[in-house]
Design a protein that fits this description.
The structure holds 2 protein chains of 2 kinds. Chain A is an alpha+beta fold. Chain A has a single domain, classed as 2-Layer Sandwich (Alpha-Beta Plaits), CATH 3.30.70. Chain A has 2 helices and 4 strands. The longest helix of chain A has 5 residues. The N and C termini of chain A lie close together (about 5 Å). Chain B is of the alpha/beta class. The longest helix of chain B is centred in the C-terminal third of the chain and has 20 residues. The chains are: A alpha+beta, B alpha/beta. The structure holds thiamine diphosphate (TPP) and iron/sulfur cluster (2 copies). Thiamine diphosphate (TPP) binds next to α4 and β6 of chain B. The site of one iron/sulfur cluster has 14 residues of chain A, from β1 and α2.
Chain lengths: ~80, ~250
């Protein structure tokens, strides 16, 4: 059966660590960096469980700052 | 599977809208304003209106909206966006003209401008960000503040006996003959964002088609003013704002 694989790129510099993408992700792929911060001091979002991403783009839709780029590919 | 197999342009499903520039937006983390800015940018691009759009920016947190979207903008005095939009649309009728206003802007100082523009059926779209509070100036009570809601100027909660109840501008506007679209949406989930996109698209199409005034009220959060995390603010909005400001169309003709 074909499966959807996704990949999310986070624009680290723009991210404000609001956590809304983490909440909206149906597969628990994302989290905020627990220690690392960006130039503005925000704990930015990252793919904690990259294998789980299905590329649904929910995270992108709810991101207020346009930090998220989503790719999706069908794999057999 | 290798990441490089996925990350290439043909697999792209979502990205920052092309009309949103690289300027860092000044909004607090998790603020609804940013999501609505993105939706507006996407719709203008989809309708190929980037050379034809004139946005009217408000006073309020969105006062700098013109810095973030690469379209033409005019800055209005507080509450006067519908009056300025009236002038712009009448002078340049081939343009798509929209206002972007908070609830302090639209429902307090600009109540008269809003109602009369809608009553005249000006061919403009009004994007109304209702977060129940004056965000920019420190979270003061707005006409839209919920009953018993604590704000910096109602520390014991809004007293409806002395200040009235939350003002439902959209319901009032929907009664006017000049209004072709009056709808309430939100941007707290991906599904809600997609719906908002459809309604803002319709509002912009109505402006171009000369159908009258369209109002899209986005029930929003001001997590900083409400003193909550963005996630808690979304939940609070669903629990407390939606019963008073229910999502859905009041008018769509
Ligand atoms: C003529 C005038 N009166 C008052 C103010 C102060 N003021 C600035 S923003 C604002 C309220 C903004 O609230 P809202 O429209 O709800 O937007 P938000 O900041 O919540 O997005 C007020 C009263 C002003 N700038 N100009
Ligand atoms: S694309 Fe979907 S599954 Fe992947 S991180 Fe974003 S919300 Fe989660
Ligand atoms: S004060 Fe409220 S409305 Fe203004 S940017 Fe912050 S969260 Fe948004």
């Amino acid at each position: 059966m074909a499966k959807l694989k996704g990949y999310v790129e986070v624009n680290i510099g723009r991210c404000k660590g609001c956590n809304l993408c983490v909440v909206e992700c149906p597969t628990d792929t994302l989290d905020l960096q627990p220690r690392e911060v960006n130039d503005r001091g925000y704990h930015y979002a990252y793919m904690k469980n990259p294998d789980d991403c299905i590329g649904c783009a929910n995270c992108g839709f709810v991101c207020p700052d346009g930090c998220i780029t989503v790719y999706r590919k069908k794999v057999l | 599977m290798n990441v490089n197999d996925i990350v290439n342009p043909e697999n792209l499903v979502y990205a920052k809208p092309a009309l949103m520039n690289e300027n860092h937006m000044h909004y607090c983390p998790g603020c609804s304003h940013g999501v609505v800015h993105k939706v507006i940018a996407e719709v203008i691009k989809e309708l190929d209106l980037q050379e034809k759009t004139i946005g009217i920016a408000p006073v309020g947190c969105a006062v700098f909206a013109y810095k973030y979207l690469n379209i033409d903008w005019q800055e209005a005095a507080h509450g006067r966006a519908p009056a300025l939009a009236t002038a712009v649309k009448r002078l340049l009728p081939d343009r798509m003209v929209f206002t972007y206003q908070g609830d302090g802007d639209l429902a307090a100082i600009g109540t008269a401008e809003t109602i009369h523009a809608a009553n005249r059926g000006e061919n403009i779209a009004i994007i109304f960000i209702n977060n129940g509070i004056y965000g920019m100036t420190g979270g003061q009570m707005a006409p839209t503040t919920l009953s018993n809601m604590v704000t910096s100027t109602s520390p014991d909660g809004r007293n409806v006996k002395t200040t009235g109840g939350p003002l439902k501008m959209l319901n009032m506007l929907a009664l006017l003959d000049g209004v072709c679209l009056a709808t309430r949406v939100s941007v707290h989930t991906a599904t809600a964002v997609k719906k908002t996109r459809r309604m803002i698209k319709l509002a912009f199409e109505n402006s171009m088609a000369g159908k009258g005034t369209s109002i899209v009220e986005v029930v929003s959060t001001c997590n900083a003013g409400w003193k909550m995390t963005p996630e808690a603010a979304n939940n609070w909005m669903v629990e407390n704002m939606f019963p008073v400001f229910p999502i859905g169309d009041l008018k769509n003709i």
